[in-house]
Design goal:
This protein is of the alpha/beta class. The protein has one domain: Leucine Aminopeptidase, subunit E, domain 1 (3-Layer(aba) Sandwich), CATH 3.40.220. Helices cover about 40% and strands about 20% of the residues. Strands 1-6-5-2-4-3 form a 6-stranded mixed sheet, with helices on both faces. Helix 3 packs parallel to helix 4 and helix 4 packs across helix 5. The termini are close together. It binds ligand AR6. Ligand AR6 binds next to strand 2 and helix 1.
Length: about 180
């Protein structure tokens, strides 16, 4: 299926400001603790019940994801995906683990009957993954997921900065 590109939008925005998606993805840590970056913004907007539930869940392994309700956010679900911490050279399965975050999130969204999902640029902030390499991995993983899950009709890659937007647009232009 080649229509996946028409189901993907790359934009620059604050992911917590989106009020027309079923699920947003959080760039979480393995302890599911409220952190900084996009995680802090999501917790701030969702309210304290999110941190309480995340504490009860307690753990999510790198490359995996877990869904919760979105509480005070306008979407239905937050899918907490744990990206890899970048190590020098990227020889510690970072690409594979990052791809797994996107694909697992899409699978969970599909299981929850979400037609729309928004991703942040997982791992490229605190976790230090080089953004162009992450963009290439992310969009290839999203391509595979959208082909597998045709009922997801609206996937968004939400970049926080103009530089990130450029990297993801470049990655998209390079995928056949
Ligand atoms: N909307 C969209 N993107 C955002 C927003 C926002 N409101 N705020 C930041 N970003 P990071 P990581 C971008 O550090 O690298 C946390 O403490 C940001 O500019 O949030 O996966 C967690 O709890 C960057 O491009 O996530 C973990 O401990 C991208 O989101 C750890 O950091 C990801 O940056 C995860 O690190």
């Amino acid at each position: 299926m080649s229509d996946w590109k028409s189901r993907l939008t790359i934009l620059q925005d604050d992911i917590t400001a989106l009020d027309d998606v079923d699920a947003i993805v959080n760039a979480a840590n393995e302890q599911l603790r409220r952190g900084a970056g996009v995680c802090g913004a999501i917790h701030e907007a969702a309210g304290p019940r999110l941190a309480g539930l995340c504490q009860d869940i307690g753990h999510c392994s790198t490359g995996e994801a877990v869904a919760t309700p979105a509480f005070d956010l306008p979407c239905k679900f937050v899918i907490h995906a744990v990206g890899p911490v970048w190590g020098a050279g990227g020889g510690d399965r970072e690409d594979e683990l990052l791809a797994s975050c996107y694909q697992t999130s899409l699978r969970i969204a599909n299981d929850l009957h979400c037609a729309s999902i928004a991703f942040p640029s997982i791992s490229t902030g605190t976790y230090g993954f080089p953004v162009q390499r992450a963009a290439n991995v992310a969009l290839e993983a999203i391509r595979v997921g959208l082909v597998e899950f045709p009922e997801i009709t609206d996937a968004r890659m939400v970049c926080f900065s103009a530089g990130d937007l450029e990297a993801y647009e470049r990655a998209l232009s390079e995928i056949a």
